[in-house]
Amino acid sequence: MNASDPPRQSARPRLGVFKFASCDGCQLTLLDCEDELLGIAAELEIVHFAEASSDAAPGPYDLVLVEGSVSTPEHVDRIRRIRADSRHLVTIGACATAGGVQALRNYAHVEEYLATVYARPDYIATLATSTPVSAHVPVDFELRGCPIDRGQLLEVVTAFLAGRKPGIPNHSVCFSCKRRGTVCVTVAHGTPCLGPVTHAGCGALCPAYGRGCYGCFGPARTTNLPALVPLLHRDGMDDEDAARFLHTFNVAAFSAVEEQGPGATGAEGAR
Q: Which Gene3D superfamilies match (predicted)?
């Protein structure tokens, strides 16, 4: 090969990882794959991943992972450009799939937050709401969690390479508790728990250590919040406490289910 010859193009699919309004935790989950990351790098050419390398190649991309919510006007333009350059786009984490904890601002006046937090709010360009990526562009798959689960991330990437749909469960955390033999903290101890209405993915980690689930994976596919509220009342929560219990990482997703009523379907795992 002569120096004047054009560089040989890689036959591997091109992977891009992008961040919007978020804490970087879901991107770090990819880095935390450690040994498995070497296998991923052997099958995918990682061409854009600011958390791992300062090298940033332009599109097109075969697979894009997007972390973070759309919270500024610049974000809207940027996610549209990324989508146009992407063959498959997967959102990762509560911020990208539900607007994140920053979506609490959706239920107040953003001007009040700006005036409280910033000395010169007139310098801040922001949207009044924090929204999921799917509110702005088509999304091929949503991987939920705060942060996402390492095993589920590997399953999504592997499924892409194999040309199949990811095998991500749609059941609730209660199902996971039963599978691992964990005693129900609500039944046994009267501990408030969002397990009955929360999408599985964490392996029912919190109930295994005696505390109630607090909904970091968002609403399960079929969620009946009105049936859960009397249990929260029984376990010592009033309406305000119950609302605060729900309004954390996936506030917008749970609020949407509340508005739709019993049996409403939360954010789908696949689109």
A: NADH:ubiquinone oxidoreductase-like, 20kDa subunit
Task: Dig out the tokens for 188 from the structure.
Answer: 């046994």
Q: Decide: helix, strand or coil at residue 124.
A: coil
For 251, the token pair is 């506030």
> pLDDT, tens digit, for every residue of 199-256?
999 999 999 999 999 999 999 887 788 899 999 999 999 999 998 998 899 999 988 8
Q: Is 222 helix (H, G, I), strand (E, B) or coil?
A: strand
C-alpha 51/C-alpha 69 separation (Å) is: 17
pTM here is 0.87
Contact 15, 39 (CB under 8 A): no
Q: Specify the amino acid at residue 98.
A: A
The string of pLDDT tens digits covering residues 48-58 is 999 988 888 99
Helix (H) or strand (E) holding 97: helix 94-98
Compute the distance between CA of residue 78 and CA of residue 71 in angstroms, rounded to an integer. Answer: 11
15 touches 45 (CB < 8 A): yes
Tokens at 144, concatenated: 């939920």
Q: Are strands 222-223 and 264-265 parallel, antiparallel or unpaired?
A: antiparallel
142 in the same domain as 23: yes
Is residue 223 classed as helix, strand or coil in its secondary structure?
A: strand
User: For residues 26 and 153, what is the distance between their CA atoms, to the nearest angstrom?
Assistant: 9
Residue 78 shares a structural domain with residue 39:
yes
How many Å apart are CA 212 and CA 261, to the nearest integer? 23
Token readout for 133 is 């990526």
Residues 154 and 180 in one domain: no
Please report, for the chain, how many H helices and E strands are present, in that order.
12, 7
Are 200 and 245 found together in one domain?
yes
**219/221 Cα distance (integer angstroms):** 6
3-state class (DSSP) for residue 109: coil
